[in-house]
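Need residues for this backbone.
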């Protein structure tokens, strides 16, 4: 489809690219990080993109689609209405008919499809992006992480690796995330969630991407105008752990002096004589 000389992507265009260029197939379990504007013009906007993703995995009876549905550190979070802070695609996905949202006060996920309920039910009582969280469960199911028009600085599952590696800085949180938050599930159910293993900065996660690329573990392709990639979730976790254990606990931390959380984590590691990478 064209509008004033500019190609407009249709659902079938996007599905074709997802299958042909990234190798997504029926029955896949995928978690998607995306930049809507990177795709170019899409007929129908984010809803069309989401429908194309669902069709690319064989529909709801075969595949499973998951997206991060993170929200800010509000005093009260209502799973039914608190919006996602990550952009147009996941916020649109949150409101899709049939989508279920996991019980977490800061880092919930939304999912739809064959294994959606199995993924989200694991989150209650678990750390936001820690052991047993939906991203960890997706990896154990043999799932994939898909990035559409964005790199691994938005790759949430790397935080799971920090948890598995028992990084000593997991208690250090961004400002306002280190508080008790009331989570509302329904009219009849709400409870307090206390801070635990709050995920930190991800600005340095491209070191994981570089290592995955070196090992030939990234499937790359274009979806619309977006440079995209698909990576086996378990490979991301394994490589991230290897970097942490091999180079030091600060291997995934950024070195920006303006980063309030990574500077605190580096200081904590140094003060407590934990292994750090050579600089």
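Answer:
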């Amino acid at each position: 489809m064209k509008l004033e000389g500019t190609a407009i992507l249709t659902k079938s265009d996007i599905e074709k690219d997802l299958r042909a260029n990234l190798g997504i197939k029926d029955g896949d379990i995928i978690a998607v990080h995306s930049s809507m504007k990177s795709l170019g013009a899409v007929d129908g906007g984010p809803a069309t993109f989401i429908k194309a993703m669902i069709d690319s995995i064989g529909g709801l009876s075969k595949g499973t689609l998951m997206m991060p549905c993170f929200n800010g550190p509000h005093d009260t979070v209502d799973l039914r209405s608190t919006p996602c802070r990550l952009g147009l695609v996941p916020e649109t996905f949150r409101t899709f008919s049939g989508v279920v949202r996991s019980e977490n006060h800061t880092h919930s996920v939304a999912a739809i499809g064959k294994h959606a309920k199995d993924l989200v039910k694991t989150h209650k009582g678990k750390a936001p992006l820690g052991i047993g969280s939906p991203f960890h469960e997706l990896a154990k199911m043999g799932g994939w992480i898909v990035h559409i028009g964005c790199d691994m600085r938005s790759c949430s599952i790397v935080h799971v690796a920090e948890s598995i590696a028992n990084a000593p800085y997991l208690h250090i949180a961004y400002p306002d995330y280190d508080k008790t938050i009331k989570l509302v599930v329904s009219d009849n159910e709400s409870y307090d969630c206390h801070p635990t293993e709050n995920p930190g900065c991800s600005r340095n996660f491209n070191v994981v991407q570089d290592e995955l690329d070196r090992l030939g573990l990234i499937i790359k392709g274009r979806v619309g105008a977006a440079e995209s990639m698909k990576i086996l979730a378990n490979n991301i976790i394994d490589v991230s752990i290897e970097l942490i254990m091999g180079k030091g606990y600060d291997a995934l931390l950024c070195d920006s002096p303006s980063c309030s959380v990574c500077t605190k984590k580096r200081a904590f590691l140094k003060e407590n004589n934990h292994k750090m990478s050579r600089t």
